[in-house]
Amino acid sequence: MKKILIVDDIKVNLKVLEVLLTRNGYAVLSAMSARKALSLLQEHICDLIISDIQMPEMDGFQFCRLCQLDEKLKHIPFIFYSSARDQKQIRQQARKVGAYTVVRKPADPAQLLKTINTVLNDALNRTMALTGQERCYNRRLDPVPGTVGWTLDANGDFTNITPAVERLTGFSVKHIQEMGKSGWLNRVHSSDEEKVRNAYKQLFQDHVPLDIVYRFKCRDNRFVWLVEKSGTPYGNQTQGCDRVDGFTADISAGITDLERRMESREQRVIQTFSTGVSHDLDNMLNGIADYIQLSATTTAGSRERQRFLANALKISRSALALNRDISCLSGEDKAVKKNSLLTRVVARVVRSLLQGSDIPCRVEIPRGVWPCRVDTRLMARALEHVIINACEAVAQKSDGRIEVTLQNISIEGAPVENRAVSETRHDPDRYVQVVIEDNGCGIDDPYLDQVCLPYFSLKPKDMKKGVGLSLAISRVIIGRHGGEMAVHSKKNHGTKILILLPAEPGGT
Hints:
phosphorelay sensor kinase activity, EC 2.7.13.3, HATPase_C_sf, Beta-Lactamase, Helix Hairpins, alpha/beta, Sig_transdc_His_kin-like_C, histidine kinase
């Protein structure tokens, strides 16, 4: 049974297609966003993709490009199913990104099924026609419409290159073959040149396939962003490289779009952060001033005056705590004094926050947890923020509960991706993991990437107790200890915070 993935941000459209296809003998997967579709494609093998074009976050064209650049997905035929009026322009763009065809929405069911059958048969025929070395060679040489396929010999000369190179660079095939790869590398942006040359050195000497992104200067002096990948060179390390096949694709549009989105996101974060800090400090300072004024003008007895001053003191302490959090985020509070064992800090924080609370909390700190020294003050703040968030998440549930567990984690040969980890951890294979889990309201998947941003909150205004810095502060503090923090959550099922900290050498 052929499996078809359908992608559309409108639920009724998905349902109509799903019913039509299942009734005609197809297995169907459906997704309401390109992001979800990509996730499904990592788990399921599909024979055809039918996608809408106009979708939020990532449109159909971007989705198709990403599929075509993925070795595991590029063979899947792609049909656009769109109600856009300018069908001519849509079809041109569809061809550029590698789609098979465009079907106008709504389509006659019989005609749509006929198109699907034709596409699947063509894909099967193409696959059967390519065998052995021919299939391998063509798959590498001309992987995606709009990219440049090439073959280099042992001397670095282009023995084959597809005509798309002229559209990409402005240089003819003949000119590119005359300049060779050495001439090509001379046009690489100076900031990327060393990286690219090292990649080619590894390709020819160590037979490490190419997988690089760099900037290239075209004939009209424009720089374009290119992704370049290759197969493993033919030949062996003893006899040397005979030839290698690869492809080069223009990803400038994607890079520009990503930079624009990142810049926009950073601006929103800064604006939200500065507005939030200003608002919170303003409220606190006004509160302090009001209580001091009340204490000075009240005709009540000394007990009432003391209550006003106590409230002013309480608010001033909150302001000081906010200032410490801001210092931590800004990088001013960098000192980490590893003066206490993690197990003791965890036990103390849980006890102080949940002792006498109505919220059930199970704490599991097994014997034999590897010693992990932390800054008592900073780590307590990090854990407090996480546990307070968990308490607020389960507050409205009659069966709300929190679990805090510690365990040893050994990651043999783990790659060092975090600079803080590489600089501070003593044994790259030994960690202590803290898991703080609740069964509260949970978080929608689209918001998971934002929960650690300053002043990001999903709570209604009347439920907010803090100032929106909690998880941002926790992540910064854990990072300064050479650790990592991850958030896993599911709406209406709860949230799990995983904290990974490097263990001390030796000991049990």
